[in-house]
Amino acid sequence: MSQNLISFINLRLILVSGKTKEFLFSPNDSAADIAKHVYDNWPMDWEEEQVSSPNILRLIYQGRFLHGNVTLGALKLPFGKTTVMHLVARETLPEPNSQGQRNREKTGESNCCVIL
Fold first, then answer.
1. Could you tell me if residue 80 is inside a domain?
2. Cα-based angle 24, 29, 35 (whole degrees, multiple of 5)
3. Distances 86 to 12, 68, 93, 111, 113 between C-alpha atoms, Å
4. Does some domain include residue 107?
5. Source organism's superkingdom (predicted)?
6. CATH code of the domain in which 14 resides
7. Residue 9 near residue 28, CB atoms below 8 Å
8. How far, rounded to the nearest angstrom, does the alpha carbon of residue 110 sit from its chain's CA centroid?
9. Percentages (nearest 5) of helix, strand, coil residues in the chain
């Protein structure tokens, strides 16, 4: 591997359909930069999944949606190795407290009351 490739992060992006494609990115690239790059260089074999705008492409890493300003470097992704992320089309990100709601459901805690 050349020295130049070591300073890049290899992302394998997976669509909901299961199709995958690998891209090289800089640690300074943000989730929004990646979405724009993928949109501008949409793979031929992903034609059926083509979206209307890069603004609705969202990255999911380790089960969490990445906000547009998060960089790959901030995630401390390894250089020279492949990192897998999911790429989905979604207008908005989930509310930050929705994760807390799921955690309450798992632990059995509840915020409702019983009327007798």
1. yes
2. 80
3. 8, 14, 14, 33, 38
4. no
5. Eukaryota
6. 3.10.20.90
7. no
8. 30
9. 30, 25, 45
- Long-range residue pairs from 76-83, CB within 8 A, at least 24 positions apart, any chain: 77/9, 77/27, 78/9, 79/6, 79/7, 79/8, 79/9, 79/27, 80/1, 80/5, 80/6, 80/10, 81/10, 82/10, 82/11, 82/12, 82/22, 83/9, 83/10, 83/11, 83/12
| pTM attached to this predicted model | 0.75
Give the number of domains in the chain: 1
Identify the pLDDT of residue 55: 93
| Amino acid at residue number 33 | D
Instruction: Look at residue 71 and tell me if it is in a domain.
Output: yes
Domain-located, residue 101: no
- Identify the pLDDT of residue 3: 47
